[in-house]
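Hypothesis: this fold can be encoded by more than one sequence.
Test: take the C-alpha cells below, design a sequence, compare later.
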C-alpha cells in the first residue's frame, strides 16, 4: 500500500500551520530590531534637544550674571565718583537712587524674574566675601598680636635671667619663688580672658540672679536682680589686682599681656551699658546650657526606661511562669 501522507486534508493543514509558524518566527526579530532602532533614534534626538536647551539656559544665566556684575561695578564706580552731600546720581532726575535697568546705557533694562534673583545672589556672594575678608583680617591681627606678645615675653625672660646672674644664691631662690607665684596669677587671668569671662579675670564670683519679668493680667513685675556686685567693689578689686600684675612688679614674661586683659575686663564691668550687655549674654548662655542639660537628662532617662522595659520582656519570655516570683525576689534583694 502506498502512503498518501501530505496530500490528505489533515496532513495538509498541519503542514500549512508549520510553514506559517516558521515564517512568523523568522520575520519577527527583523521587525523588532527595526522598531527598536527607530525608538532609539527618537530617544537620542529628544536627549540632544533637552541637552541643547539646558546648555542654552546656562549660557543665558551666565550672560545675565556677567551683565549684572558689570552693572554693579558701574554702580559702585558712579557712587564713588558722586560728591558727598549731592542730591542723587547724575541723570537720576533728583529723585531716589539710580535704577539698575538704565545704568550703562538706555537700551539695557533689568530683566524680569531672573534678573532680580541673580542680583540678590550677587549681593549674597559679596556679603560672604566681605565676611571672609573680615574674618581673615581678624585672624591676621590676632596672629600679629600673639607674635608681638611672644617677642615681649622672650625679652622679659631674658632680662629676668640677666638679673638672676647678678644675685647671690638666697636672692636667686627668693626671686624664682616669687616668679612662680606671679606666673600663676598671670596664667589665671589670661585663661579667663581667652574664655571671655570678665568676672573671672578680676577674680570675682558672679552669683547674680535675675527673676522675671512676671506678667499678671495687665501688670508686670520685675525683673528683679539679686546678688549683684557693686561697681565700687569691682574698681577696688581691679586696683588691688593691677598692682600685682603690673609689668614693673610682676616678673612673669606675659605680665604685660595679662595687665592689658585686666584693663579690658575692668573697662567692660565698670561701664553700665557694656556690663548690662555682657550680663544679658551670660544669662542667655546659661539658659541655653540649662535647656541642653535638661534635654540630655530627659533623653537619657527615656533611653534607660526603654532598655529596662525591653530587658524585663526578655526575662519574662526566658523565665516563663517563674518570671514574676523571680523578679519580685530580685527587686526585694536590690
Amino acid at each position: 500500500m502506498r502512503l498518501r501522507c501530505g496530500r490528505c486534508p489533515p496532513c495538509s493543514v498541519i503542514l500549512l500551520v508549520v510553514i506559517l509558524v516558521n515564517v512568523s518566527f523568522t520575520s519577527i526579530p527583523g521587525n523588532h530590531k527595526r522598531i527598536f532602532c527607530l525608538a532609539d533614534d527618537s530617544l537620542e534626538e529628544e536627549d540632544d534637544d533637552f541637552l541643547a536647551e539646558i546648555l542654552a539656559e546656562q549660557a543665558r544665566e551666565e550672560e545675565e550674571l556677567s551683565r549684572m556684575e558689570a552693572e554693579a561695578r558701574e554702580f559702585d564706580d558712579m557712587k564713588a565718583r558722586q560728591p558727598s552731600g549731592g542730591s542723587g546720581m547724575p541723570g537720576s532726575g533728583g529723585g531716589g537712587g539710580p535704577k539698575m535697568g538704565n545704568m550703562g546705557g538706555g537700551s539695557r533694562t533689568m530683566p524680569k524674574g531672573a534678573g532680580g534673583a541673580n542680583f540678590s545672589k550677587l549681593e549674597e556672594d559679596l556679603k560672604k566675601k566681605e565676611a571672609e575678608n573680615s574674618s581673615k583680617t581678624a585672624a591676621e591681627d590676632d596672629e600679629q598680636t600673639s607674635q608681638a606678645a611672644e617677642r615681649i615675653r622672650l625679652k622679659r625672660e631674658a632680662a629676668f635671667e640677666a638679673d638672676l646672674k647678678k644675685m647671690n644664691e638666697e636672692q636667686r631662690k627668693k626671686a624664682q619663688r616669687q616668679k612662680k607665684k606671679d606666673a600663676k596669677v598671670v596664667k589665671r587671668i589670661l585663661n579667663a580672658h581667652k574664655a571671655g569671662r570678665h568676672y573671672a579675670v578680676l577674680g570675682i564670683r558672679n552669683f547674680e540672679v535675675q527673676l522675671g519679668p512676671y506678667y499678671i493680667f495687665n501688670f508686670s513685675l520685675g525683673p528683679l536682680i539679686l546678688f549683684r556686685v557693686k561697681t565700687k567693689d569691682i574698681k577696688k578689686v581691679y586696683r588691688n589686682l593691677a598692682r600685682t600684675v603690673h609689668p614693673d612688679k610682676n616678673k612673669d614674661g606675659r605680665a604685660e599681656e595679662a595687665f592689658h586683659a585686666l584693663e579690658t575686663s575692668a573697662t567692660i564691668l565698670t561701664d553700665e551699658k557694656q556690663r548690662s550687655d555682657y550680663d544679658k549674654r551670660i544669662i542667655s548662655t546659661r539658659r541655653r546650657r540649662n535647656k541642653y542639660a535638661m534635654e540630655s537628662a530627659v533623653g537619657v532617662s527615656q533611653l534607660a526606661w526603654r532598655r529596662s522595659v525591653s530587658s524585663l520582656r526578655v526575662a519574662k519570655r526566658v523565665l516563663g511562669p517563674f518570671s514574676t516570683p523571680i523578679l519580685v525576689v530580685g527587686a526585694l534583694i536590690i
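The radius of gyration is 43 Å. The longest helix spans residues 9-81.
Hypothesis status: open.
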